[in-house]
Amino acid sequence: FGGRSAVVWGSFEILDEGDGFKVKKITVLSGQRLSLQYHKFRSEHWTVVQGIATATIGNKVSKLKSDESLYIPLNEIHSVANEEKEQLQFIEVQLGNYLGEDDIVRLKDIYNRI
Fold first, then answer.
1. Which of 54, 50, 56, 63 is nearest to 89 (CA)?
2. Contact status, residue 19 vs residue 2, Cβ threshold 8 Å
3. Nearest residue to 95 via CA among 32, 41, 37, 28
């Protein structure tokens, strides 16, 4: 296993994947954010392992610290930002019948990837 991708916001590494699941380690640099998005084919579970995440799920915004987690249902609009000085790292577990990177519907993206 193991794919890596890096862009301005940070990076991700695929730790494991199999039939119906994928596990990623995601790093978000200080002051950066992931796009406001949703997925048609997968749900996600996020667990923070380093830093503080400012997570938006639907209309709710919450701060998550190390060892805290949340669930993002299928088709739920979500985003995460790192508003802190240290980097943010979280583990993302994706579950669904299709887990391709093209299952991202971006609604707002500061990196112009819409």
1. 50
2. no
3. 41
Count CB neighbours of 6 within 10 A. Answer: 10
Can you tell me which residue has the tokens 């930002």?
81
Contacts of 101 (CB under 8 A, 6+ apart): none
Indicate the SS3 state at residue 89: strand
Q: Tens place of pLDDT for every residue, the chain, 114 residues?
A: 445 554 578 999 999 999 999 999 999 999 999 888 899 999 999 999 999 999 999 999 999 999 999 999 999 999 999 999 999 999 999 999 999 988 887 877 665 655
pTM: 0.85
**What's the number of CA atoms in the CB half-sphere (13 Å) around residue 32?**
18
Q: How far is CA 35 from CA 16, 17, 56, 67, 80, in A?
A: 23, 23, 11, 23, 8
